[in-house]
Amino acid sequence: MNRAWMGLEKAPEGSLKNKIHGLGLKLLARVKPSEIFLKSISKEVTDVEITYPSSLNPRLVRRRLRHIAMRGAASHKGYFYGSVSLLPLTSAFTVLPLPNIPFFWVLFRTYSHWRALQGSEKLLQLVSDCPHAENLDIPNMKESESEIETGDSKHEVHKTRGSKWVLQPSKELEELLHNGDENDGLSKCAISKICKTFNLNKIDIIKFKHTM
């Protein structure tokens, strides 16, 4: 599949293969940012650090992350089995003289949903490693609080003993969100500053905003 994609990418400008490659790029651009995020969580990941606006309740942040993981596992499992069922059907197009784009696309989506499913399950495992943490008031836990210095700012880090997740409130993120707030959400300027400060992909963030 990768060799076929590279062949399409190197095709002469204006050729059929080049147009097919352009169509593939448009299809890839429609992949949800949440799927890209879940695919990035490999089995080698051993812990997770969540940076969030300081005005939010850390328990709410962790519950939201668990919701993303549970919803991702349920949806991508269904999409995975659906894509697998389409593989035999699309493989019949190999008799045509053109590249079997439907088969390669379904194969890619099958692999992508499988990776997202694995990432969802791994994320759920990481944020659910302490079953009693939901009943604890994290900011008041003396044994789980520590302070770290980051530049000129001070961040308070909440981590339950023995857990694999770290909740890190950020006053800087809170200020960027507050200053960039508009009637229709965050301004593009604020999004650019946030992405630059926290090393995020601006295109994915804007795509995620449009899905809200």
TrEMBL record:
InterPro entries: Mit_KHE1 (IPR018786)
Segments for region (Disordered): 142-161
Entry keywords, A to Z: Membrane, Transmembrane, Transmembrane helix
Transmembrane segments: 86-108
Domain of life: Eukaryota
Keyword Membrane: yes
Gene Ontology CC annotation, any one: mitochondrial inner membrane
Compositionally biased region (Basic and acidic residues): 142-155
Name of this protein: Uncharacterized protein
